[in-house]
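This entry is listed below:
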Amino acid sequence: MDRRRQSRFVPALMCLLICGCAQRFVELRERRFDPVADRIKLYAKGGPRPTERTRQVLRKYDLDNTWSDNISSIDGLVAVYRTQPTSEICYALAELNYIAGRKREVFYKQLAFSHFVASVAYSYAYLFSPKFDATRNVYDPWFRGASELYNSSLESGLRIAQGLDRFKPNQVVTVETCAGPIEFKITTEHMQWNSHRAHEFKFVSDYRVVGLNNVHETKGLGVPLIAIQHRHGRPDEQFYPKGLSFPVTAFLRWEGVDDEHLHARCTVELYDPLESAETVVADHHVPLESDLSTPLAHYLNNSQLEALGLMGLLRPDRAERVSGLYMTQPFQPDKIPVVMVHGIWSSPMTWMEALNDLLADPEIRQRYQFWFYLYPSGEPFLKTAADLRQDLAEVRRIFCEQESPPKMDEMVVIGHSMGGLISRLLTIDSGDRFIASITGKRGINQLDQDAALQKVAHQFVFEQQQAVRRVVTIGTPFRGSKFANPFSQFALRKLINLPKSTLDDVTRALARTSGLGHAEVMVPRTSLDALSPDSPILQTVALSEASPRVHYHNILGAIREAPLERNTDGVVTFASAHRDDVESELIVKADHTNVHRHPLAILELRRILMIHAAEVDSRLYKIRLARHELTNESETTHAQSATPIKTVGPHVNPVEQPGWRPTTPARR
């Protein structure tokens, strides 16, 4: 290519890279979603107004002519309820109080709040009071109606409390109502996150998810919230992304559910729906209302996150400041880590479709914690793998001060595109093969004599990570990609700003120890250099033997109506992505940027994780059994003390779907 064409191409490529549109994941609704709105004609002309069944209750006690005043109808019905409490009067009072609160919430907040409190109280009594056990019918629409009145009135009350700066975790707040003072205690004992972690709460009903294919909700009691993490400069906060949102469900528990009057004391319990799917009230198992997707989408609606992929490609020198391992939940020693590694010109956002669907599965979220690796994708993947090894060691240092929990050494790593190469590298013993591949010489000695050689050792000489037990590669160019050609390599070298001092130090050190000239040592300078089919580093990775202690799986895309041998995902050919030394290989009809988001690929990830969980259970059980035998305890004592482990994997069949191909590696 002549210089004139090169000078035109580089600015054109720059414009192409920069002019992408930022994706939106959530948007504000014009007005909040309210499940009760249609039933009470909340936004209709002349509304809101009671349902026909509530008006029938009013007619029964000659109060129908008072409902337009609402307060009079409530007072009249309360007088009846005190002498002859019935479930139908209880429901009607919950509905009438909610209507009264919505009518007054703009100009008379304190009065509206007392009505919302009353609505929660009556709907709670309708659902749980033993006096209504004989007449309560869970198939009656009123039962679900009472649940929705409970949720809507609780949310309305919390909104007013938040506006008055009274919605604060771990505080006792007394609020004056028309029925006297009500004492609220707000607790966080059911949350993984410490109370100081959340400094702001938003309501899920204010938002509409637009950037994720699936929205995962559960129906029950409670108010789904978005909690915004607050940073305090603690050492572990380096692993939590700034501005992280996480789901919370608020549930209000009354004391004295049988009282005919408003209760003076209640507790607002904040739950983590990723850990608690239900609560118990009066011996009833009550599912909690939750929304797992909206808090995730709220966090992703951050333009800075969208820019990380581009910055990581073009400005690795700047992206290094924010690179590293990130967690979306607090570290949990009893759960298996899953590390997800993105590809070139990407960021952890690329995994959010898969994370959204996997966390929706109760068995998956019960057993796994998900971590994401953010790295400058403009750098050669060999350096990125070295940095990831260092970050994994830092996690162990900070969170495992004493003995590492067993689940830490059962790690699963999932990599897309170049991230698959990085993931695979974690399971390889390098020896001197990678140095030899770029110098042509073996036996490079004295790697610990100076700082420059330390950088060489960090990047090129390493041992496999013993904690990694399973690797899933997706759309990975094991034998390179045609897009990593001399033309694109030249263009991106003009655009990518790498930390040149580090590269120069490594090149000089290798030249010095190998006896070669500086120009003869072909250290990859960018990620595209390393992904070229002619790259000696890539060829060394492709030929490296799989570790016998690690399980490998592969997923790849195919978009052509052609035999597999001539197929491609648009970036990586089947010949480059296919491997024989894996336990399973799934082919999905998807292009390179969507293969890891494809529903069948996500189902395959779930299948693999379930098998892994079962194998971990079995392995840890055998370890416990062996330790028991070493201590010479009796079998009877062990049988009485051992906790049975639920296995879910050995009997799970592979996903029977087009394209799934089991392989039997020669090493097995």
